[in-house]
Structure formats: C-alpha cells, structure tokens
Write a structure and sequence with these properties.
With 249 residues, this protein is mainly alpha-helical. The protein has one domain (10-28, 80-247). Helix content is 44%, strand content 8%. The protein contains nine helices and five strands. It has helices at 10-19, 51-54, 67-77, 84-99, 128-133, 167-178, 182-194, 203-225, 231-244; strands at residues 106-109, 112-115, 136-138, 196-200, 245-247. The strands form two sheets. The chain has a three-stranded parallel beta sheet with strand order 3-4-5. Strands 1-2 form a two-stranded antiparallel ribbon. A hairpin with a 2-residue loop joins β1 (106-109) and β2.
C-alpha cells in the first residue's frame, strides 16, 4: 500500500508547526481522544499535539489502524468514514443541483465511477470562476474525503489525480482546464482553497485532513507544472488550510 501520510515528506516536515496550529486558541490542536492514553506513553484528550509528541506515536489514517481500534473509535466518537464511491455520489448530487443537469465530472458505476475526459461546460449565467469560488463546508470532516480524495478512506486505495472526486479536486480540475499560465493557476487554486471549509474534533483526524489538503496542492501543482511548490506557495496554502479546517466538537 502506498504510504498515505508521511510526516517526513519535505513539504510536510517544513509546514508541520503550522499544520498543528489552532487559530482559535493560539496554541496547538489537542488530541480530543483517549486512544493514545492507553499506549505505553500516555497522551490524554486535552494534551496538545506537538512535533515531539508525533515522534512517539504512529499517526495513521483510520484504514491503517487495527480493527479493534477502529471499532473503539466508532463506539466512543461515532467515527465512521465514507467510501469514496459514496462521496462521489453525494458530490455528484451537489453538482447536479448547481449545474442544473447530471454531473459533468464522471459517470457513477457499481461502487466506482468513470471520469469524463471532456472539458467541463458551464450553464448559462454561471462561469468556471463561480464554481471555483463556491463556498462549501464539510462537517465532522474526519480525514476530509468529501473535499479531497487522495485515497479511499474505507480501503486505503490511492486515487490518481485525474480520477479524484472531492469537491476541491473538482475545482482544481476546472482550473486546470481554464488557466494556461502558472501565475493564473496558482491564483485560482488559492481561491479554491479559500472557498472550502471543514471541522473535526479528534486531533489526529484533523491533522490528517490538513495534510491531505496540503498533499493535494503539491500533487496537483507537480502534475500540472512539473515542478515543486515554492516555500511561499506552501506557506500561503498552509495558512489557508489551518484557518479553514479547524478543531471543533
């Protein structure tokens, strides 16, 4: 299985202090779960997550956790993650409402989908900029599978950029199809990130959600422009992510 969350990846390592920030309190996010209080080294729900703490635990997506731990988190925190095909179906419904017709991004199949390759066309009176700027909130977002779909949160299967189905993934596809310069692309991708929001209570899920958004930015920029992001680009996107994806019960 492809490593889904890698804290040692250069862009994650550089931005980790920012990714751990809680913009409401001015401190770091907290665990908000007692799962890590049962290990040899105990970290309790009210304890802040720091870089040194992360060196002592194994931060993994839900799908990589033991079945017993998954079940316990479901019982104690009602944690249930949605398969990618269901996320796609629900996001397609939202797009049907917005476009006024069947979703133009993909065709739903049996627990799967087939991506349309044709450039997305927009209805009269609406533009691609309107779609990119559309504000969307994912409540109790977990690892944010409705916003970005780097992997299927129920199976751990990695999803290639061109076949991703998250709301932010769709916005970036539209930007790819309508921006011919890197400057314009970065400008509108920044707008896209500023338009999506999510909240989550459990600190490990929240951190993974933030990492998934940052990895999505890196994946898409690298694929579109064949280069790594600059430090300034990473800092700007990370600041947006930590403001828009926040910790809340």
């Amino acid at each position: 299985m492809k490593k889904l969350i890698d804290l040692k990846a250069p862009h994650i390592k550089d931005m980790l202090p920012e990714l751990l920030r809680d913009m409401t309190t001015g401190e770091n996010i907290i665990f908000a779960t007692d799962i890590y209080s049962k290990n040899n080294i105990a970290f309790f729900p009210t304890e802040h997550i720091t870089e040194s703490v992360l060196e002592q635990i194994d931060l993994q997506p839900r799908v990589a956790k033991s079945l017993a731990e998954q079940n316990e988190r479901t019982r104690s925190n009602a944690e249930v993650f949605t398969p990618a095909w269901i996320c796609n179906k629900m996001n397609n419904f939202l797009d049907k409402e917005w476009f006024g017709k069947k979703s133009p991004f993909n065709a739903e199949q049996e627990k799967a989908w087939k991506t349309y390759k044709k450039k997305i066309a927009f209805p009269a009176g609406k533009t691609w900029q309107d779609y990119v700027s559309l504000k969307v909130l994912e409540i109790t977002c977990g690892e944010a599978p409705f916003l970005v779909s780097r992997y299927d949160s129920s199976t751990g299967e990695y999803i290639e950029v061109e076949n991703r189905i998250g709301i932010l993934d769709r916005k970036i596809r539209v930007i790819n199809e309508n921006c011919d310069s890197a400057f314009d692309w970065v400008f509108w991708v920044n707008k896209a990130f500023q338009s999506v929001y999510g909240y989550e209570y459990q600190g490990d899920n929240l951190l993974i959600a933030r990492i998934n958004l940052l990895n999505t930015f890196v994946d898409c920029l690298t694929e579109r422009w064949k280069r790594e992001p600059t430090k300034g680009e990473l800092q700007f996107i990370t600041d947006t992510i930590v403001r828009n994806i926040w910790q809340m019960d």
